[in-house]
Write a structure and sequence with these properties.
Layout lengths: L7 E5 L4 H11 L5 E4 L9 H14 L2 E8 L3 H9 L11 E4 L6 H10 L5 E5 L11 H12 L5 E5 L20 E4 L18 H7 L4 E4 L1 H4 L6 H24 L1
Parallel strand pairs: 1-2, 1-8, 2-3, 3-4, 4-5, 5-6, 6-7, 7-8
Helix pairs in contact: 1-2, 1-8, 3-4, 6-8
The structure holds 6-hydroxyuridine-5'-phosphate.
Amino acid sequence: MERKKSNLAVSVDVTKSKDFLAIIDAVGPFVCLVKTHVDIIEDFDQSLVQQLQDLSIKHDFVIFEDRKFADIGNTVALQYSSGVHKIANWSHITNAHPVPGPSIISGLSSVGLPLGRGLLLLSEMSTKGALAVGSYTQEAVRMARAHRDFVIGFIAQRTMEGIGMQENTVDKDDFLTLTPGVGLDAKGDAMGQQYRTPRQVILESGCDVIIVGRGIYGKDPGLVDEIRAQAKRYMEAGWEAYQDRVSA
Ligand code: BMP
């Protein structure tokens, strides 16, 4: 993030590998991270993974497969390491719902730790009516604190710093907060998504990274110049809000 002066992550939720790679190559210079949902790609094969890794090196970004694991330890270890996608082989970080309890972290870390991978826990969600609130969020943060060797942060709507801690605790967290539900032009979509601006997310809510999908690639993945311009716009808005937060 510091090297590229970017706290922008782009979520590339398209179904064709040609569009997927074209968007990533266009936004690459502006992002610290690319977030994927490889299970929506219709023509997925292992060569796509190789090309994604090449782009990650070319543009210096981290790869995050947004897999949202949510099962027992034994099952998530298999889903993470095996199957068609073999996520652990190529995705630097992935994420999990804390709903099964700490065993989900043990299962995933048995695969990911030896490979130097990291995990994000979903302690909140951006959607209307989300159930990840209150004590659920607090327990997610406690789970993360108990597994600092593998958990590097959260998908959440605000910083999780200090949540669930006793008052006067001197212990400080050092987790990242990556936040989806970010848009400069829309307030939401027709399926419950809710958007806030980079300023609200980074400056007011103390998050670190903005995750932007449709706000950048829009409706037509072929408009590469427009996608590049939007990526630059979101990168500048995110970084300016971050600079304002750290200098406040
Ligand atoms: P968009 O900016 O187009 O709404 O996309 C948001 C992305 O972030 C999607 O890939 C979605 O799966 C993900 N996401 C989210 O929107 N809210 C959450 O709480 C967690 C997510 O992973």
